[in-house]
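Aim 2 progress update. The chain analyzed this quarter is reproduced below.
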Amino acid sequence: MTIRRCAATVPLLGLLFTLLPADAPAQQIYLRVVDMLGASVTDLRPEEITVREDGVARELVDVRLANLRMKLTILVDNGEVMNNRFMHFRDGLTAMLEALPENQILSILTLARQPRWLVRPTTDREKIQDRIDILTPDPADLRFLDALVEASERIDDTEEPHRAVIVVVSADTVDDSTIHQDRYNDLANRLLQHQVTLHAVVIAAERSARANFIPQASINLTDLTHGYYGSIATTTGITDRLVEIAGVINARNRELSRQLVVRYCRPDDAPPPQQVAVEIARDGLRFDLTADGRVQ
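Predicted structure tokens:
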């Protein structure tokens, strides 16, 4: 199979931004390997795999299961526009929590006045629920982009291998963050570099001349990271949407549990390849090769 690299073009606020994935220390690809009976094969060793870029063999770093532990960050709009509707937010977050695996690492970051960690990364369900129960609105404009940057930088700070997922729940309202092209591009490139999947639910609200950034950025970034985007008219639909996102996350976990991620080195002076190919030495196997683990 061939993997082709291309720039991702993302429109924002009427402008056109071209996003080029940032180089990581090691390149990586995903393999879903099955035997002649269709059973998944997950025990391949590095010496059984050869990766070639444009016909040139590359040095392998490691081969491991792709279903890394997932760390989920939920960004919640607690701005004043959601006042008197927080019961729906709390119910939706509780339902999503119940639909996720018991050992799920989860954190919650609120958006209004300034990004603030309501829940630091934990698997303690009781602690998470207690913090959801005290979620209250703040009479200030929210900081949507600031919160996304904060969440993405937290991914940079951790050394433990994991798969990052961000879920945004926000009203379609004014973002009080500092918004400009370079900052948005840096965020998008960081999401790509760390293979973050972003899902978003945006609730319709009273519009203003500035209230178009949040839905547009959410659509762009969910498309860019192959996430889920949903727009709902009222907060009563939050629970269904968040449970649906939990189902998408769970399905992705099952898909990755049957795949291998292969990391390899590319010389610093080597240009991005036009083609990436894999050879497997073990007989009787079939495989799909993808750049992001999303097998068609």
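The chain has six helices and 15 strands. The first strand starts at residue 8 and ends at 12. These observations will guide the mutagenesis experiments scheduled for the next reporting period.
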